[in-house]
Amino acid sequence: MELTGSLNAIGYGLASIGGGIGVGLIFAAYMTSVARQPESQRTLQPMLFMGFAVVEALAILGLVLAFIV
């Protein structure tokens, strides 16, 4: 049995699952903490978007590497 094609798509597909889980955990933690202490929303929101940006940047980096390799 011979495998043909590129495994890059499979690798990126698996990597994007990690990004999706990471974003879900970030927003779940934010919603839980704001539900417990609504006055902390202003201090937590910048950290929320920073974490979201890092996770998405890693997912985009994986997409770029899938096309390069």
Automatic annotation (TrEMBL):
Membrane topology per the record?
Answer: Multi-pass membrane protein
The family database entries (Pfam families) matched by this protein are listed as:
ATP-synt_C
SUPFAM superfamilies linked: F1F0 ATP synthase subunit C
InterPro entries in the record:
ATP_synth_csu_bac/chlpt, ATP_synth_F0_csu, ATP_synth_F0_csu_DDCD_BS, ATP_synth_F0_csu_sf, ATPase_proteolipid_c-like_dom, F/V-ATP_Csub_sf
Q: Where is this site: Reversibly protonated during proton transport?
A: E56
The entry's keywords: ATP synthesis, Cell membrane, CF(0), Hydrogen ion transport, Ion transport, Lipid-binding, Membrane, Transmembrane, Transmembrane helix, Transport
Q: Which residues form the V-ATPase proteolipid subunit C-like domain?
A: 9-68
**Annotated TM spans:** 12-35, 47-68
Question: Principal localization?
Answer: membrane
A GO molecular-function annotation:
proton-transporting ATP synthase activity, rotational mechanism
Q: Which PROSITE patterns match?
A: ATPASE_C (PS00605)
Protein localization = Cell membrane; Membrane
> One GO term of the cellular component aspect?
plasma membrane
The entry sums up its family as follows: Belongs to the ATPase C chain family.
Q: What does this protein do?
A: Key component of the F(0) channel; it plays a direct role in translocation across the membrane. A homomeric c-ring of between 10-14 subunits forms the central stalk rotor element with the F(1) delta and epsilon subunits. F(1)F(0) ATP synthase produces ATP from ADP in the presence of a proton or sodium gradient. F-type ATPases consist of two structural domains, F(1) containing the extramembraneous catalytic core and F(0) containing the membrane proton channel, linked together by a central stalk and a peripheral stalk. During catalysis, ATP synthesis in the catalytic domain of F(1) is coupled via a rotary mechanism of the central stalk subunits to proton translocation.
Tell me which NCBIfam families the record gives. Answer: ATP_synt_c (TIGR01260)
The protein in question is named ATP synthase subunit c
